[in-house]
Automatic annotation (TrEMBL):
Protein name, as recorded: MFS transporter
Coiled coil segments of this chain: none
Annotated TM spans: 16-40, 52-69, 90-113, 119-142, 154-177, 189-210, 243-267, 279-301, 308-329, 335-358, 370-390, 402-420
GO molecular function: transmembrane transporter activity
Gene Ontology annotations for the cellular component aspect, listed alphabetically: plasma membrane
Organism: Pseudoduganella plicata
Keywords from the named record: Cell inner membrane, Cell membrane, Membrane, Transmembrane, Transmembrane helix, Transport
Major localization class: membrane
PANTHER family in the cross-refs: INNER MEMBRANE METABOLITE TRANSPORT PROTEIN YHJE, SHIKIMATE TRANSPORTER
The keyword Hydrolase is annotated on this UniProt entry: no
Highest taxon of source: Bacteria
Compartments where found: Cell inner membrane
UniProt domain Major facilitator superfamily (MFS) profile: residue ranges: 16-423
């Protein structure tokens, strides 16, 4: 036991931060290539030919499956993360996500095996969600539980940076394929390349993860004999209030992101007349603002407090929802670019401190499970059906109702933050 403690103390800051960053980059790369393919590829190849709008909605429904799998992953991987340790659990979560993604790249299409194609796609999507459900919480704890005093939010933002980097890589590779291949080549085999390429990234992630040792906070739990027998039961029974409030405070983050990415891509290509390549370029440019504002938000959170920072940003997101329809619905390249940059900049501001504040809601002995559950339950409420709901609202009532949807989500997060007793 003492040996493990000494090993944990030898974790170098650079190694810890890179290990937390590389894992979430890979995980989000895998997750986003599915999100992009759910709009551009799967409706055509994995569902019966016919009504294009119906095929898109069915494809977005498979996209939602992962969000329902994520709380299961939180409970499963959280159990081992709080019982066995952060390191081994992070390795297992990465493998689960990576293997699911590679298999998607090898699946036969509807033309080859009929109804089995969407069923197998849904199963692999469940595997992706299962792995991500265990990955995010562990990566955040790896960073924050090794943080020096006064820098907890700064350390906690490194795994959060994996989201814009993963999105940039996934969008970039789809854009590159679109430029280098004809539509026939892309839909024949090109779309498989990002899924298969993730195998290389997973090997890199595993190499880095295997070099780290256990976190000091978890080692203290081991040394004091404070491990909980069934962490998920302890969270549900003893920390119900924090679980509910944490879920609600993260809700706006999820709604905002998936409106700015999956819904915006689908609506921009189908309703506003943008080409796939043109809109992907606009999104990739806007993602730079997502990445740049994450460290800014972390610095503010360490200086002024995580809670106050997120209260201000949630209010700004609620106001941004009212500007969604005028900016995005204009169809103007300039205004759509401004819309994407503003939205993703706000996304970075809310996402930067989120991992830190969610981890601080729970004691170390159930922190992996508690933080993971809040984050992934928020994914169900805020992201799983967001592209579906937004598409339906836009089609039936107009884009302004998509903006109202975002504003309501932001207000719910604002109320939860006000009611939460944390920094």
């Amino acid at each position: 036991m003492q040996e493990a403690h000494s090993g944990a103390a030898r974790n170098k800051p650079g190694t810890v931060l890179f290990a937390s960053l590389i894992g979430t980059t890979i995980e989000f790369f895998d997750f986003y290539i599915y999100a992009t393919a759910a709009v551009l590829v799967f409706p055509k190849l994995f569902f019966p030919a016919g009504d294009a709008a119906a095929a898109t909605l069915q494809s977005l429904a498979t996209f939602a499956i992962a969000f329902f799998a994520r709380p299961v992953g939180s409970a499963v991987f959280g159990h081992f993360g709080d019982r066995v340790g952060r390191k081994a659990t992070l390795v297992a979560a990465l493998l689960t996500m990576g293997l699911s993604t590679v298999i998607i790249g090898m699946l036969p299409t509807y033309a080859s095996i009929g109804a089995w194609a969407p069923l197998l796609l849904a199963l692999c999507r469940f595997g992706q969600g299962l792995g991500l459900g265990g990955e995010w919480g562990g990566a955040v704890l790896l960073a924050t539980e090794n943080a020096p005093p006064g820098k907890r939010a700064w350390y906690g933002m490194f795994p959060q940076l994996g989201a814009p980097i993963g999105f940039f890589l996934s969008g970039g590779i789809f854009l590159l394929l679109s430029e280098l291949q004809t539509d026939e080549q892309f839909f024949s085999y090109g779309w498989r390349i990002p899924f298969l390429a993730s195998a290389v990234l997973v090997l890199v992630g595993l190499y880095v993860r295997l070099k780290i040792t256990e976190t000091p906070d978890f080692q203290k739990v081991l040394d004091k004999g404070e491990r909980v027998k069934v962490p998920v039961v302890a969270v549900l029974r003893d920390h119900t209030r924090m679980l509910v409030l944490g879920t609600l405070m993260a809700m706006a983050t999820f709604v905002l992101f998936y409106l700015m990415t999956v819904f915006a891509l689908n609506w921009g290509v189908s309703a506003l007349g943008f080409s796939r390549q043109h809109f992907l370029v606009l999104q990739l440019f806007a993602v730079l603002f997502f990445g740049l504002t994450i460290p800014v938000a972390a610095l503010l959170a360490d200086r002024y407090g995580r809670r106050l920072t997120l209260i201000v940003i949630s209010a700004a997101i609620a106001l941004f929802g009212l500007a969604l329809a005028p900016l995005f619905g204009s169809g103007s390249t300039t205004q759509v670019t401004i819309f994407l940059c503003l939205g993703l900049a706000l996304m970075g501001m809310t996402y930067g401190p989120l991992g830190t504040i969610l981890s601080e809601l729970f004691p170390a002995e159930v922190r992996y499970t508690g933080a993971s559950l809040t984050f992934n339950l928020a994914g169900i409420l805020g992201a799983s059906l967001a592209p579906y709901i937004a598409t339906m609202l836009a089609n039936q009532y107009g884009l302004q109702y998509v903006g109202y949807y975002l504003s309501i989500a932001a207000l719910l997060s604002l109320v939860a933050l006000v009611l939460t007793r944390t920094k």
